[in-house]
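Amino Acid Chain and Its Fold in Token Form
===========================================
Structure side: the spatial fold of the chain, written down as a series of whole-number tokens.
Position: the record begins directly beneath this header, with no further notes in between.
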Amino acid sequence: MSEIEKRLADMGLELPPDCPPRASFVKFRLWNGLLVLSGQICEWNGEPRWFGPVTEATDLAEMQQAARLCALNLLFCAREALGSLDRVEQVLRLGGFVNAEQGYARGPAIIDAASQLFIDLYGEAGRHARTAVCVSSLPANAAVEVDALLAVR
């Protein structure tokens, strides 16, 4: 078990058992010290857990759990690509998407939960550039999707 997976366990979290792609794309591309991770929705083992559209009446904490699940799926894919999450040198960028009603303004607060997980796991190396936007739909009508770009050793 990697040091990062131990930290996850200490936080009461675990990686999903699988993270199957939903369409014709690869989950990751490793190139020249960069790991590009395809967007992951808030699903566990292929089963979406939260659905959109997110509205002002939607519980923010629930949607933050959805974003955290996206991050766990990204970590699963990173481990699959690298063999160990300890090979991540720097989280460079996250892109976050929230399936929300028009005018919804708390999308960045939802994606903060994915960002915070990477910071909690990697410390300063987990701090990253980020985009967080609301969109009108996501695959499987999921509430949240997150992608990532990592520098690796």
